[in-house]
């Protein structure tokens, strides 16, 4: 099973026939695999490149410049510089912030920078100072808005492809609760990853409606092969023009299981046979339901389930 690569140029051109073709392929791909790849999408490639450049600078900052915006245990949502529990205990305790977390049994070998909607008052973003990283906040906010716009267009097209009210999903999602996660996977000994208790990211579903993943050249994203559950296939980076769309758990519930969430993980590059696995980056936009809405099955999608029995990717 191979994830379809779909030409999304109709999103910019507005060509009606091509949009119908696009939305059919989008729904087919997401409902069959849980994933599609788009090319010629609407997030400008220079903006993605600039976002990668900025966040690489952020992660290279010395510890004392990242610590002031570290995510802490008392933060209700992840914002700012985020580390998995084990590393957090080490970094933060050694800097006397007194934040102690239980060591997880299976940990992810990564750090991330997380932020939400630029106007989120409930969980405000944490930014490095402009003296330290000029343009960082502006670039990430631009990336947030541009990726967010793409997700809303995709949600309307998925609804239309299901022959539902086009606003059935977007009336429940304005991206006010959506988030960006920028992952940095530091170089790691291959032996540590092969030991079996540390991974780059363990298998998981994303919680939101859909996720957009922009990949960088170092490979590692893998998706579950639904014809052979529990096994994973590589979802490779092929060009800087592409974005991976992943169905999340909220979409699975809203569609009453019609579009199942795509299980995925991050592994070391499969063809890598050296000792030190190279560092890796990814930019993720988690499109999430608004905080006040129900994320249970929608009655409208319960009714269409039978209509789509035998639905197959073309
Ligand atoms: O790094 C990747 O390719 C995917 C990241 C991911 O799955 C996540 O952050 O939820
Ligand atoms: Fe994920």
From TrEMBL:
Presence of the UniProt keyword Iron in the record:
yes
Per its UniProt record, what InterPro entries does this chain match? DIOX_N, IPNS-like_FE2OG_OXY, IPNS-like_sf, Iron_ascorbate_oxido_reductase, Oxoglu/Fe-dep_dioxygenase_dom
Superkingdom classification of source: Eukaryota
Q: Which PROSITE patterns match?
A: FE2OG_OXY
Key words of the record = Iron, Metal-binding, Oxidoreductase
Recorded hits in PANTHER family, A to Z, give: 2-OXOGLUTARATE (2OG) AND FE(II)-DEPENDENT OXYGENASE SUPERFAMILY PROTEIN-RELATED
**Would I find Transmembrane among this entry's keywords?**
no
Name the chain's protein: Fe2OG dioxygenase domain-containing protein
Any one GO MF term held by the record is: metal ion binding
Species this protein is from: Talaromyces rugulosus (Penicillium rugulosum)
- Provide the Fe2OG dioxygenase domain boundaries: 176-289
Give the family per the record: Belongs to the iron/ascorbate-dependent oxidoreductase family.
GO terms for biological process, alphabetical: small molecule biosynthetic process
